[in-house]
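From the methods appendix. Each design record in this collection lists the tokenized structure first, followed by the designed amino acid sequence. Records were kept in a plain field format so they could be parsed without special tools. The example shown here is representative of the layout used throughout.

RECORD:
FOLD TOKENS (302 positions):
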């Protein structure tokens, strides 16, 4: 029967003691081939960051960040991997800027998904919800974008910041990051929230920082800084464009100013990333729930 065994009438997949140590990184979508000697992995899943908003707009939220060890996989199987694109910006005074796209490590029965970053708010809509939320544009009294759209524990991200009310300052709020909330706009655009670090590749790298909120051409206010982890900076006159989120970090993009003569637009969100690290491990005692889940997923409980 191949990779199956009989143990007192119990039929199931073969018990594979996980012995791997290699790291595989995905900067674009593909497939992960599980070695025959591996039954559990650690997975980093970072979603695409949100785009920046228009007209003293808010910064885009960082993509959702999830770093999970002990993920059970079926030895010898092929697992699809989706790396989410960053949200696309829109033209000046447009409300069509986009959220980031989800990233997924799809191990069949229990896929691991991180939510795309929320788009930065414009003079109309508030910042969008997402892995981390987008910041609000100035003079928007609505609640800024909320983070942890997937309702995960631990949280995949944080909320965006509020914009100033225009009396006397004009500034957008920063997008939330995986590590902290976006700052409110005030004398300058709000800074993007900090990202979170992972050492899954063997060195510490920070991902999913929020984008900075825009400054204003009304009184030459500076844009906010992008959060560590690939966040783009907010625009400031006479710059031509807000900063993009960095590729393969899930960084949110910076917000746009309000100078139509420059045809400004918010930045584009940074694309996400998925990293898989093989883990050593051995099976032991299992609950009925773990046995049920293993049977559904086609792996031995570990």
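DESIGN:
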């Amino acid at each position: 029967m191949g990779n199956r065994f009989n143990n007192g009438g119990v039929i199931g997949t073969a018990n594979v003691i996980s012995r791997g140590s290699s790291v595989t990184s995905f900067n674009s979508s593909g497939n992960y081939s599980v070695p025959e000697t591996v039954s559990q992995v650690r997975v980093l899943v970072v979603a695409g960051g949100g785009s920046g908003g228009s007209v003293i707009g808010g910064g885009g939220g960082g993509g959702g960040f999830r770093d999970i060890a002990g993920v059970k996989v079926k030895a010898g199987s092929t697992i699809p991997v989706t790396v989410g694109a960053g949200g696309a910006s829109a033209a000046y005074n447009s409300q069509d800027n986009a959220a980031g796209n989800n990233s997924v490590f799809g191990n069949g029965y229990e896929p691991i998904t991180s939510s795309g970053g929320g788009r930065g708010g414009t003079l109309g809509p508030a910042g969008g919800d997402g892995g981390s939320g987008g910041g609000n544009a100035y003079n928007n009294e609505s609640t800024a974008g909320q983070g942890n759209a997937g309702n995960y524990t631990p949280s995949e991200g944080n909320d965006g910041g509020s914009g100033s009310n225009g009396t006397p300052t004009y500034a957008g709020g920063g997008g939330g990051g995986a590590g902290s909330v976006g700052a409110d706009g005030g004398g300058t655009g709000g800074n993007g929230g900090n990202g979170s670090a992972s050492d899954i590749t063997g060195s510490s790298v920070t991902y999913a920082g929020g984008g900075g909120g825009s400054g204003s051409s009304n009184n030459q206010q500076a844009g906010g800084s992008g959060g560590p982890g690939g966040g783009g900076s907010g625009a400031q006159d006479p710059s031509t464009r807000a900063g993009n989120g960095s590729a393969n970090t899930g960084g949110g993009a910076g917000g746009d100013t309000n100078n139509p003569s420059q045809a400004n637009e918010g930045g584009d969100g940074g694309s996400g990333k998925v990293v898989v690290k093989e883990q050593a491990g051995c099976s032991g005692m299992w609950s009925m729930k773990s046995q049920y889940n293993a049977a559904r997923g086609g792996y031995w409980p570990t």
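APPENDIX NOTE: The chain has one domain: 18-281.
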